[in-house]
Every structure is written in structure tokens, then in C-alpha cells.
Amino acid sequence: MQTTYIETQQISFQDFKNQILEDYRLGRISREMSYLGRREVLTGKAKFGIFGDGKELPQLAMAKVFRNGDFRSGYYRDQTFALAINALTAESFFAQMYADTSVEREPASAGRQMNGHFATRSLNEDGSWKDLTAQKNISSDISPTAGQMPRLLGLAQASTIYKNVKFDGSEKFSREGNEIAFGTIGDASTAEGHFWETLNAACALQVPMIVSIWDDGYGISVPTKNQRAKADISEMLSGFQRKEGENQGCEIIQVKAWDYAALLDAYAKAEHFARTESVPVVVHVVDVTQPQGHSTSGSHERYKNEERLAWEAEFDGLVKFKEWILNYSIEIDGKEEVIATAEELEAIDEDAKKTAKAGQKTAWDSYQTAIKELIQSVVPLVENIKGQNAEVEAALTHFNKLVSKAKKDVFHLARKTLLATRGTNSAERNQLMQKYNEVSEIEKDNYSSHLYSQSEWKAENIQEIKPVYSDSSEDVDGRVVIRNNFDKIFEKYPETLIFGEDTGNIGDVNQGLEGMQEKYGALRIADTGIREATILGQGIGMAMRGLRPIAEIQYLDYVLYCLQGMSDDLATVHYRTKGGQKAPLIIRTRGHRLEGIWHSGSPMAGILNLSKGILVLVPRNLTKAAGFYNTMLQADEPAIIVECLNGYRLKEKQPDNLGEFTVPVGKIEVTKEGKDVTLVTYGSTWRIVTEAANELEKLGISAEVIDIQSLIPFDLSHEIAESVKKTNRLVVIDEDVEGGTTGFILQQILEKQKAFRYLDSDPLTISANDHRPAYASDGDYFSKPSTDDMVEKIYAMFNETNPQKYPAIF
């Protein structure tokens, strides 16, 4: 059991003095970084700036109780905290401002995120996990307000899980579950639903979580009184305050941002509650100031009156901290002791300016050196060509006149030169082309790598193991196949857990988890409240801490509640850290072909477009779904698996090798051979397409049916193009809206696979109507593609080319 700050603070006056002065020094360095950062934006050297000035003291206090193994899920103003835990330097702060693409110089995001977005690296270069208990951890920040909150819940709940769950390697992720998850949020963002949903869930689950609210009285220009029902968030939260003897609720602590001693006490108490009692704590930090306003986009003088600005100057945390230090004295052994003199503090102030400036200069010089090296490798090759082409000479002249040069300017020059010299074949042009290809690969890695895993555990690398059947293999309901496969999964992988609405006690609404909670316990097979955004967040946070969570979203339509977190957080974790963090969460849901507007939707195009970075797997039956779970639990990437709602009661032969067989991602399956037309589909629609194909056979049309199985990744071997090459006709069928997923599929087949070369007829798409599906079986028939629709539209393709053989139906 780790001790807490309260239990360890028995120190000498000299150590006390040193700690105070170190805090003052870090606070001053952070402030000078903020001041200098704003100047870098206003002089055009950086694009945008948002800073943590005014929040230095509470962040220093929070850092004192933040220990190895702990995690932060935070707000883009926590630079002082990041400095205090050694996750940030002045150099890396400015490297991020300049968007330096070096992981060594800007380890948080390699230039992919704007400033103030911090992260520590959880992974080794090969994608394997580091020992997260040996470092202080920051989960990668995101900009959407309150978007960091759902993930915080999972980071905290992981500690609860690790108190009870052990597996090979779990010692790298937790020490007996003693870690705390720290969240930070701006006061105005507490008006967001994600804040309330997260806090509500944390209070119900009783997880070790500390949420710090930085309350500066405004949300950009909008005062707090216009943000919420009550100006005082502590007052609003009073109903969440836990009562003695009850295992619900949280502790609420309010403290002033400029009161250093009170801040130390507040965070010491917060840590004690969270670490020793596993109780969530809200630390409401009031009287926060913003000396430079919200960001470099505007001035706070536009919305703060002179009285408010004067108050902020007087109650600036560092000003008050300096006063407190100068006024502090204590008698020890008859001698008055002080912490520092005014002259000593002024010396620290000057040194802080030098430290910030030195960090800025080093970062700028390194950033510029990288650009100069690019210029030196490309521009001389362009100069070798300029005498051969006036257009190239003009482009080079324009380039040389630029006051400051970025990578894009160098690439524009090279591309302009290659365009102007098209059709010519010279040694000089060939040299430029070779160099252009070389530097393009470098920048492709700098800006576009790591959207998906690049490790040996990438899902595409998982070996296919086919289902094994024997004479004793039973025909059972599909839900029995998925249930029994989950049984094998939970037995095989102790780090795997599943949670969602009705997931635990009743074994999910379709009995796919029947008996699992009784067998494996309520911690691993858990019911949740109706709160999809934080079900997803639980999964993200736990996956970032080495567990293998399956977050169940009851129906596909309900995934819409999760799309913000899927798109902004889960899908971008690996990308926005350039392979520094991962969250291999599996989202389990079920969809298609139920009844009515809210339970039978197919928002697949929205998921595809908004969630690049997450694998999208669409099995046609429950055996295929089980195989995908077996695959993804060996992989290190996030995925959504959409089970077929109409498959749970349909009979399937149960494989003998449950828990072992795998379905490969990115691989299609030809389920019916044919020679006249290729029918491409997925999920529940596959059954109807197969029926239609059998009907077409009676009409003299031989249809080949292809089950895509995996939308992302899509047909990696380009097998669909080979089918089209044989049949010369293509029909894409699904139950999304017109131009939705079928548009994506067509782009993949026609553009990427170049299958347009083999077509004798226009490609055809058959989709649902653009409205939501109407209720009941008739609503389904008239809203989504039926067998009749498919047969008639596909038959019409043949009527157009050979009306004598295929006379018109209507």
C-alpha cells in the first residue's frame, strides 16, 4: 500500500524551505513560458497559443500527491503540473508550439497537437508496453471541452479492477490497485454533459479519482452565472457529497487558487480519500486568474471590466505566493528563520526568464535546423534545373524572397518544378524526383503514420485459425455460440472484462452472456447505468492501463451517444501520440433489422467517416462475430464489432475450437460462386442478398455473393476486383442510407482496386431509404432493401443489356 502525502510530510525546515523555493521556481518558469509563448504567436513564429498562467499554484500542489503509476486525464492548461512531474521541459513546450515533428524534441505528440496538449509515452518503440508503475502518466489530451472526462472514469476504475485481477504482466500496470486517476477541467466545461455523466458514474462505482475544477469565473467571455443553474459549482454538487456510512457519492473540497498552504492541505486530503478509501474527490479551485486571457485569439480586456482586471492583478497566484514567502517566519531553537528574502526571489524570477528563453531558443533553433536541412537537400537540385525552364526560375525567385520558410514552401517549390518540367528526362530532374520521393516518405511518417498499429500485434498480423467441426458439432442458436465463446475468452484472458447496460445480471438482452456474471463475478461481467458515453470512456481508460475491456453498447443506434468519444479520443489515441499510447478497446454492439426508428438504424457511414483509426467489423453471423473477438483480443488496436440482431435465434453449427478460431480482418469471403454479377454486402443484409441471389438463379442470372466482413480494413487482397474481372458487373447492397457506406465501398473497389476497368454495366448500389426505418415488419419491408428490391434492380441491369433474354418486369 502506498503511503499518502499526509503520512510522509515529516521534514526539516531546510527541506521545507527547499520545497517552497522549488515550487516558486517552477511556477515562475511556467509563467515566463506563458508570456514568451504568447509573444511567439504574436510575432508569427507559432500558430496559436493557449496557456496555463494563473493556475500555477494549484497544479504545483496537485503534483505533490501525484505518484508513479498514477494517471492524469486533463485540460490543455496544465503546463505547470506537467513541468512539476518532469513530463515537460521548456524546450519541449516550445517545440510543441512550433509543431516540431521530432518525437525526441516533442514527445507528447510529435507536433501533431497544438500547444498545451500533454502526454507521456506508454509504449516502447516496438509498440510494447512500458512499466507504467515506474513513471508518472499523462493520457494524451484532447481539445473538445469535457471530452477528457469519460476516459478519466476508466483510468480510475482500472485501479479497482487491479485490486482483484492479476494476470501475466499485470505488475507493469498496477501495484495492488493503489493508483489514482487525476482529472482537470475548466469551470465552464462543467456545463457539458460528459462532466456530469462521468462524476455520476464515479460516485456510483466508487473509484479513486480526483477531479480538479479550475474556476476563473468565465468560459472564454461568458461569465459563470450564464453557464449553469448555480454560479458556484460546489453548491450544485452538494447533493453528490457522500454521507457517513454510505458507499456512494464523493468528497467536495473548495480552495482558493492563490492560497498555497490551503492548496497543499486540500490536495493532501483529496489524495488520502482517493488512495486509501477509493472515494472520488472534487477539488473546486476558485479565484483562478488568467493574466493573459483565454488564448492568443483575443483579449480578455474586451469582456472583463477594470475592477475585475485589478482584482486579478492583486490576486494573481504567484504574486500572493511571493507575499506569503516573504511574510513567512518561524522561530527554531530561539532563532528566527525565513524562507527567502526579496532579493533571493528576484534572482529566481530572473533565472526563470533565462530558463524559459533558453528553452525557447533551443526549440526554435532545432526546429529551424530541420527545415534548413530540408532546404539544403532540395533547393540546390531545383537550382540545377532553373536554367532549363523560366517557370522554375520564377518559382525559385519567389521562394528566395520568402521571409520565413516552412516545409510546405520547400515541397511547393519541388512540386512546382516537377510540374513545370513534366515530359523532360534529364539527370537533374531525375535527381530532384529521387530526392522528392525520399523526403515525401519522411513527411508521410511525420504527419500520417500510426493511425493504426504498426506493431507485431497489428490485427492484420493475427493468424487465421478456421473453425473446426466434427460429427458431434451441434446446431445451436447463434446466441449460444457467442455465449460459449465468451466463456472461453473470460477463462483464457483474466485481463478481459465486459460491461454495459443489462450486460451482467441477465446476461445481456439477447442472452449472449448468460451465466457469465455468476461464473466470473460482477467485477468482470458488469452492469452499468444508461450512460453510453461513459461506458465507452470506461473502456478507453481501462485499455490505456493494460486491461482488455469490451464495452457493450446495447444497440447500434445508441453508438451515436459514443461517437464524440470514438472520433475525438479513441480513434486518435495512437495517431495523436505518434505511437506513444494505445487503447485496444473492443466495442460490442448489435444492430440492423430490428423494429422502428430508434432500434433498427444502420449509421455505418457515420461510424466509418468519423472513426478512422478504429477497426469496423461487420460479421454476418454469431460464429463470425466470435471469431472476430478471438482475433481482436490478440491484437493491440481498437475495434467495433457489430453483431447481427436477427442472428441470435437462428441456428448455427457450433465450432469445436471455441475461443481459438479467428476471423482475419480485411479479408472478404465469397459465400456463393457466380459468373454474371458480383453482389457485395455485409452484416444482416447478407442473408437477404443470398436469398435474392438464389431467386436470380431461377431467372438465369448467376450471382456471386461476397461478404465483406471487415469494412476497416477493407479487402486487403483486392479479391473483389478479381470477382468483378470475372463477372463484369458490380452491385453493392446494404441497409445504410443512399451514398452512405455503399459510397465508401464503391470508392474502395472502383478507385483503389481499379475494378472499373472490368465493368460492362454501370455499377449499382442498393441501399435503404434516406429516412429512419418505420416500425414493424412492413416498415422494414418498405424502408430497407427487400429480396424483391434486389431481384428487380439486379434483373434490370440485364434487361438493359439484353432485353430479349431478360424482358422488362414492369
Automatic annotation (TrEMBL):
GO terms for molecular function: oxidoreductase activity, acting on the aldehyde or oxo group of donors, disulfide as acceptor. Pfam families: E1_dh, Transket_pyr, Transketolase_C. Residues 476-650 form the Transketolase-like pyrimidine-binding domain. InterPro entries: DH_E1 (IPR001017), THDP-binding (IPR029061), Transketo_C/PFOR_II (IPR009014), Transketolase-like_Pyr-bd (IPR005475), Transketolase_C (IPR033248). The keyword Oxidoreductase applies. It comes from the Bacteria. E1 component of the 2-oxoglutarate dehydrogenase (OGDH) complex which catalyzes the decarboxylation of 2-oxoglutarate, the first step in the conversion of 2-oxoglutarate to succinyl-CoA and CO(2). PANTHER family: PYRUVATE DEHYDROGENASE E1 COMPONENT BETA SUBUNIT (PTHR43257), PYRUVATE DEHYDROGENASE E1 COMPONENT SUBUNIT BETA (PTHR43257:SF2). This is Transketolase.
